[in-house]
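Notes from hallway chat w/ T.B., transcribed later so I don't forget. T.B. wanted the structure written out for a chain they're using in a teaching module, and asked if we could keep both sequence and structure tokens in one place. Agreed to drop them here.
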Amino acid sequence: MRSIERVRGAVAGKPVDHLPAQPMAMMFSARHSGALYIDYTNSAKTLAECQLKMVRDFGVDCVLMCSDPAREVIDIAGEGSVKWFEDQGPVINEERAALLDKARLREWTVPDPHREGRMHDRIRSIEICLEELAGETSIVGWVEGPLALAQELRGLNRIMTDVLDDPAFVRDLMDFTSEVAIVYAAAQIEAGADTIGMSDAAASMIGPRHYRDLVQPWQRRVFQSVRDAHPEVLLRQHMCGNVDALISQMASLPVDIYEIDFPANLTAARAGLGPNRAIMGNVSTITDMLTGTPTDVEAACQRCHETCGPYHVVGAGCELSPFTPPENLHAMVRYAAEHAPGPVAVGSAP
């Protein structure tokens, strides 16, 4: 069975040969291939080759185009706020944040991902993978969520203060960042992505009231735009950290796969999202994947499977450490390969 069919089946509750496995592996992927991470983030060919090697060597059910938080930032505002490192991802220097001056927002336009730039580099990675995989393996495109990109442009501390002090500015900024995500998602789908993932890590730091007023409507705007234009494309939401207080609001998003990080309560997430929404992740990237044994990993995968029930995609809660023992990733994929989505003891899940 093709991996995209396996994932679609798990999302729809239809029979598949076994559970899909789609762990988030970026720095791990580069290290496994012997590539420096600066090359992984700056070379479409390197990113594609590293992800294709993950499919060949581990049997994961996707190539993942996520790499770093600075693609959209650089194409919007240049490299002035970005600090580069040889063997880790670029980071945003908040003291040089691109939007220190709020008025600068009025000068910006949404970048064209089809033109040369870092956003276009990801498009090229998708095209390389599509040619190599010939439709056999899922291609997961990726965009920065509205709050994530707002934070990367403005700085984390400033955007959190703005939420309290200047919500009108936050709304204007979210209008811009959500439009960037919509345009970028469309370009990646055109290039061959069958899934669009959206990370909005900073959202887990927002309380329910501000999430409702200043974040969730723009997340919905992005997902709904993709859903309306491309109903065949799967939508995957990733929000790092503990999202327990936000689950009830997240449940109304038009999302196919919710990637739940390991600090969150998986039982509560299943109850809040309902029995028929696909959940991925919650295996600890630290105590299970990094420092655990293959037996620990398989036990963690079983716990998540039993809690989630048949609507489940096997994966870790967040990005794998580059130092994750390969045998632990093999154990995760092996659990998926040896287990069908159902029937399964659902434990305390509805």
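Follow-up for T.B.: The chain is about 45% helix and 10% strand. Might be a good example for the class.
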